[in-house]
Amino acid sequence: MATARSTPSMAEDPARIQELKEELYEACVNNGSIGRLYTQKDLFALDVVPEDSPMLLMRVVQGLTDDKLLVPVNDQRKGLCWKYRTREDAQKYINLPSSDAVLVYSIIDEAGADGIWSRAVLRRLGMHDATLKQALKQLESKGFISEMKSVEHPNKKMYIKANLKPSEKATGGPWYNDSTLDEAFIDELERVVFDIVKTQSTYKSHVNGTAAATGARAPKKAIKGSADQAKKGKKRSAVEAGVDGGEKPRVNGHAAATAEAAAVAAARKNVLRPLPAGYKGYPTTKQIAVLIGKAGIAKNQTLAEDDIQQLVDVLVFDGLIEPVHHGYEPRKPGYRATAIPRLDDAATSDSNQLDVVRMGPPARENGLTEAPCGNCPVFELCEEGGPVSPRTCIYYNRWLGLEEEKKPEVVEL
Question: Where is this region: Disordered (predicted)?
Answer without folding.
Answer: 218-251
